[in-house]
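Re: the request from the purification team.
They wanted to know what the chain is likely to look like in 3D before they choose a buffer screen. I agreed to run a prediction and write the result into the notebook, where they can find it.
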Amino acid sequence: MDMDVDGASRPKEGKAILVILVGAPGSGKSTFCEEVMRSSTRPWIRVCQDTIGNGKAGSKAQCLSSAASALKDHKSVFIDRCNLDREQRSEFVKLGDVHKIDVHAVVLDLPAKLCISRSVKRTGHEGNLQGGKAAAVVNRMLQKKELPKLSEGYSRITFCQSESDVKGAISTYGSLGPLDNLPHGCFGQKNPDSKVQVGIMKFLKKVPAPDAAARPDGSGDTTSQNPGKNDYFHKDVEMASPILDNPNLESKEGESQGVAFDGSHASRFSLDDAPTLAFPSISTSDFQFNYEKAADIIVEKVAEFTAKLGNARLVLVDLTHKSKILSLVKAKASEKHIDTQKFLTHVGDITKLHSTGGLNCNVIANAANWRLKPGGGGVNAAIFNAAGPELESATKERAKSLSPGNAVVVPLPASSPLFVTEGVTHVIHVLGPNMNPQRPNCLNNDYEKGCKILQDAYASLFEGFASIVRTQAGQSREENENIVKKALKLQDKSECHSRNNLTNIDQKNKRDADHGSEKSKKCKGIQDSFGVSSDSRDERVDSEHRRNGGSMNKAWGSWAQALHQMAMHPEKHKDDLLEISEDVVVLNDLYPKAKKHVLILSRTRGVDCLEDVQKEHFQLLKKMHDVGLKWARKLLDENASLVFRLGYHSAPSMRQLHLHVISQDFDSKHMKNKKHWNSFNTAFFRDSIDVMDEVSSHGKATLKDDDKLLSMELRCHRCRSAHPNIPRLKSHIGSCKAPFPAYLLENGRLVHAPAEP
């Protein structure tokens, strides 16, 4: 991770969350907590009844007291108990009202066989539930299972019915920063009426599985792993979570006809769990924008963003089959060979896409007016009408007005009729250019300006949608797989090894806590120093916050925007900058990791990190390197004993491409932990000269972004001797006279004062 900015004061405190884990023994509740707490920068407390009594089993009252105390301290809390029925959960849910916080439930509703197998095999369990007795306990508890509902008082429920679902939930909560929130609703439930997992009876060979005919509804096994068609909108169930891509779910067959490029109905389109944005044509109706020009821009922006949105989908909606804009866009999209699995057109009412068209869209766009008010007819009036007063209230909390070319994301309250009946979780208001002289801000047919504004409007809209996808997706699939593998390994260890692992986890949590708290401190420090307001978070999107590179799927937290703000608006930060030019700005790292630590910050839009760099950016890299050399030499004039290295982090935590110019003494109070050290002294740190060679030859840089690099043992960067902790390493560095490794002495990787003649 990038360590160039870390705050010195406590970050602005966000709203705490109470997360109630629901699941049988062996479902992975404790592992879930450990994995989230290990990766999250939000302060979490795990309340476990198995250990609440000074490491031994305690009472429910002790858990309630401990949770209340943590919430009072503004810490988010996991309730790690089975919580399988409503009565067991109710007193914990009430804590939400007392402390004015959101209460979530994460339901680990995994197959009974898996829970039993884990429980029987494990050793050294905190509650001593293991071996043969565990099977009977799991069986008994699952027969009394009562799944939580939103009506109990939860703002969000996440159902995990497979190990891949668990990965997604770990990713979602693990990526939450101190100031981040999650959308409200019920996510991932595929079988809301399921109570007992029938397969457990066969597994224990006690009772045969009930026959389908024996059930009053004749529906058979309630826990089929291939549920087929489901009603996504059970009264307590919102659309299945867009975090996961579950091919076993099918969309509800629609009645209205959607026009796909091959002429098929939209109801045949597989709209499983993929996040989907439905949007109207912007500015072509009341604002009278030219259809041909508008269609060109729609197709251009759709082509640009579909390549960056993963499995997410875009749907252009209009009310009539005779729609000119739909016909034009269809034809142009076909010519551009845009993936019909990522983009389609649909005829229907944008406020009734699920109920009348069978189209599940969790996000819809509104062609808004500048006041962000209801009325005016058309799409704007229809959406405000359908969403009820909840949308107007939620919009006021986000923005008071909107300028042409911009968009604002508004999470839709769970009480909104549009949420309840259609499963819409977010509305994105967007304002395009006006060519109608009867409306405000008419451009009088200035299409050069108008086209630019419309391009910005669609880019802002799609980036707003991307921010929702990023928030819900969290970590990458590969990282999720690694997390689950580690969790499974932990459960399968022997008692001795398990205890060792737990010790290691405690040590790593302690190390990560240092890094996490420091990273959290950045938020306050950066916002105070650089003027980054909460309005710059991903859910408030304008044309300045777009990404055009490969880092589109990276979830940049609110605190990570500070460098981007400085690069885009250097005039607001003149007192903090050493140099401002057309291409770069230069600043001292706010919390340097060495005596001298300077950042050369690119001002190019859309190049957020090394992953975004392509061959066309070679001159930018060369400019940054030249400026870095200039500053290294300037600092050497002040202190000739220093040695500098110029390079990039493979996977930075701060948005906007930046080059580190750092002295090799690493003598700084801000060099605090293993991740700090290894981010500058392993392959994770890419030398600027090597990056330029790779981009010149191959069109891209090689990224060494394996997390294992950041957790390697501490070794001196000169003699390569190993050390147990940072204080011991720093003490050694202060006296180490060994030469630098040979590879650093080659190709100008190190910059030092010229030798005296």
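For the purification team: The mean pLDDT is 77.
Please add any questions underneath this entry.
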